[in-house]
Amino acid sequence: MLNAEHLIESYLLGRRNFDRIDLREAQLTTPSLQSARFCWADFTSAQLINAQIDECDLTGAMMWRVGLQGASCRWVNFHQATMVRCDATRANFTGASFHRADLRLANLRQTSFAGADLRGAKLCYSDLRGANLTGADLTGADLTGTNLTGARMEAVCWRAATLHRAQFDSAQFDSAQVDSAQIDLAHAESVSFEGEPLALLRTSSGEQGVAEDLAQEALQGAKNLAPC
């Protein structure tokens, strides 16, 4: 098994292919490993705090409970990666691809997903408070129980996304696309879409949705929340 020290040495010597490498519980704090391949690698419980991994390929990587706090992950490919319970507080995922990635129960507070591809991603019960989702594509994503309080969501595509029991207090839907989105909010205070109140949003059935009614129904069910 290649340890963290040898990994960095190999990278500095010019190696860029680390597919299927075993880095479980590795301590990779503040390394620069840009444009490397880690397809199907195992990062379970690894710590990449403040790491620079821009433009890396982590297709199918196992990243259960990985620490990515403050990491720079711009334009990284996380296609089908498993990132359950990861901590990526204040990480930068600008332009990254999370197509069909699993981010359930993740700590994503104040994280940037600007321009990110989150199509089909699982974000159930994740904490996205204060996150930046500007220009992100959430087509078909599952945000059941997700907390998006105070998140920036300008020009987001919500087409066919699931938002059951999601929290959007003080959030904005400016220039968002919500075609066929399944909306069932746990909290709906101060939510707007293109400057209009949430009451003007249409549910997936095409009927007019009233924010207060949605919030009331969701709050009743929120008492029995269960992990996805």
Topology:
Blueprint lengths: L3 H9 L149 E6 L14 E6 L4 E2 L2 E2 L13 H12 L6
Summarize the structure.
The chain is low in regular secondary structure and 228 residues long. It is 9% helix and 7% strand. The protein has a two-stranded parallel ribbon. Strands 3-4 form a two-stranded antiparallel ribbon.
Write up what this structure looks like.
This protein has two helices and four strands. It has 228 residues and is mostly loops. The protein has a two-stranded parallel sheet with strand order 1-2. The longest helix is centred in the C-terminal third of the chain and has 12 residues, at 211-222. The two termini are 33 Å apart. Mean pLDDT is 82; it is low at 188-228.
User: How far apart, in Å, are the first and last alpha carbons?
Assistant: 33 Å
Taking the sheet with the most strands, its summary is: 2 strands, parallel
Name the structural class.
little secondary structure
Provide the helix percentage: under 10%
- How many helices? The count is 2
Strand content: 5-15%
Q: What is the spatial order of strands in the main beta sheet?
A: 1-2
Give the low-pLDDT segments: 188-228
SSE arrangement, N to C:
HEEEEH
**Rounded to an integer, what's the Rg over CA atoms?**
18 Å
Total strands: 4
Name the average pLDDT. Answer: 82
| Overall form | elongated
